[in-house]
Amino acid sequence: MSKIVLLVVLLIILVLGASIGYFNAQPIHFNYLFGSAEFPLIAVLIAAFSIGILLTLLVVAGRLLTMRMELGRLRKQLREAEGELRTLRNLPVGNPPTTTP
């Protein structure tokens, strides 16, 4: 059932993309940093969308790397605390020393 829904959604996206490409095929004059050129509007839209996706992935990758480093640090801290707890549990239990006045 979910494969059929996924197929229908993909088909709708494909039809929408094709219609957007068809209605935005006229050439536009595009000025960029080092000059200018004429491109179809859909090419400029796809390029801008792709650049946005790439920049987002770079930001997410940086955040993911930071979180993985923090996870490693926290796991090391947990291992040390578990080792200390194990050591404390293995200490013999005896009567505490009493002091006489």
UniProtKB/TrEMBL annotation:
Pfam families: LapA_dom. InterPro entries: LapA_dom. Keywords: Cell membrane, Coiled coil, Membrane, Transmembrane, Transmembrane helix. Residues 64-91 form a coiled coil. It comes from the Bacteria. Residues 24-85 form the Lipopolysaccharide assembly protein A domain. The chain crosses the membrane at residues 41-66. One of its GO terms (cellular component) is plasma membrane. This is LapA family protein. It comes from Solimonas marina.
